[in-house]
Amino acid sequence: MPQRLLLLACLLLGGFHTAQAAFFSDDEARKKIADLQQQLSQLQSQIQGRIDEAQKQQQSLDGRVVTLEGQLKSQGMIDLLNQIDRINAEVSKLKGQIEVMSHDVEVTQKRQRDLYTDLDSRLRKLEAGAPAAAAPAPAAPAAEAPSQQQPVAAVAPAAPAVDPTAELRDYEAAHALFKSGKYALSADAFEKFVAAYPDSKYGPNAQYWVGYARFSQKEYKAAIAAQQKLLQRYPEHQKVPDAMYNIANSQIQLGDVDAARQTLKSLIAKYPLSDAAPLAKKRLAAIDSLKTKN
After folding, report:
1. Is there a contact between 95 and 275 (Cβ–Cβ < 8 Å)?
2. 136 alpha carbon, distance to own chain's centre
3. Distance (Å, whole) CA 193 – CA 270
4. Could you tell me if 279 and 88 are in contact, meaning their C-beta atoms sit under 8 angstroms apart?
5. Distance CA 252, CA 26 (A)
6. Distance between CA 47 and CA 290 in Å, rounded?
7. Are 194 and 210 in contact (CB under 8 A)?
8. CB-based contact 213:235 (threshold 8 Å)
């Protein structure tokens, strides 16, 4: 009996150790599985975080690309307009130089003509000698004297003649101020010239240079007013298209683009063969292109 009990106890003890070993084996497996799941979850979280960060960076880059494209387009048009302005300024400068040279040629020719006329007059006087004095008219006899004294007609005083030398000198002085970059003094000098010589053949040019000098001083409203005077006083003069182009540029600087477009269109329609017409077409195309982009 004791042997059987001992045998039974041994069997029970062995089974207990086997069950315990199996129990501990299952717990370790579960723990490893749990660890793997945790690691997998952490890895998935890290991957998802990187994906989210990459998407944010992509969105940021897309936004920057769009912004840069817009800036490039806008900057491109601004650069184009700046280039056009520089070209127009150079063209205007060249036209001014051509006008100055043409004026110098005209002045030289006039001086040569005056010199020749004066020399010819002196030679004629030397060849002919001094003219004889006119004999006094005989006095009327006393018997034939009129009974009443005839009224003497009043003679209106003659208007003072314009000194062409002074006229030319004043115009050249005003133009010299403009060429030296003294635009404010030049504008004042040209205005005084127009007032002093209202019938001068240099009047239209002087009035134009008043407006251009004001424009160079960035006095755009004054420039427009001066050029409009040219259009009113000398509507048939060759400077009218240039004056209209200067008005349009002044209107652009003042932000009145619609008025500038109308001025440019009117210039092109009225003076299609003028030197200012091609410039007006380019400026009008640039304005329309910029308006389309916006």
Report:
1. yes
2. 73
3. 29
4. yes
5. 88
6. 47
7. yes
8. no
3-state helix, strand, coil split of the chain in percent (to 5) is: 80, 0, 20
Helices (H) then strands (E): counts for the chain: 8, 0
Q: CA 223, CA 245: separation in Å to the nearest integer?
A: 11
The tokens describing 284, both together, are 């009008």
Give tens-digit pLDDT for 5-38: 555 555 555 555 555 555 546 677 777 777 777 7
Q: Residue 182 belongs to what H/E stretch? A: none
Q: Which phi and psi angles does 149 have, rounded to 5°?
A: -75, 130
Give CA–CA dist 175/183, Å, rounded.
Answer: 10
Specify whether the CB–CB gap between 186 and 209 falls below 8 A: yes
Map out the domains of the chain as residue ranges: 1-80, 166-294
Q: What is the pTM of this model?
A: 0.49
Q: What digits encode the pLDDT tens for the residues 226-237?
A: 999 999 999 999
Rounded CA separation 39/68 (Å) = 43
Q: Give the span between the Cα atoms of 252 and 224, in whole angstroms.
A: 11
Instruction: Retrieve residue 190's tokens.
Output: 């040209």
Which two three-digit tokens encode residue 224? 């427009």
Q: Which CATH fold topology does 166-294 show?
A: 1.25.40
Contact 292, 261 (CB under 8 A): no
- Residues 37 and 217: their CA atoms lie apart, in Å, by 79
Cα–Cα dist 96/226, whole Å: 18
By C-alpha distance, which of 264, 238, 266, 239 is closest to 251?
Answer: 264
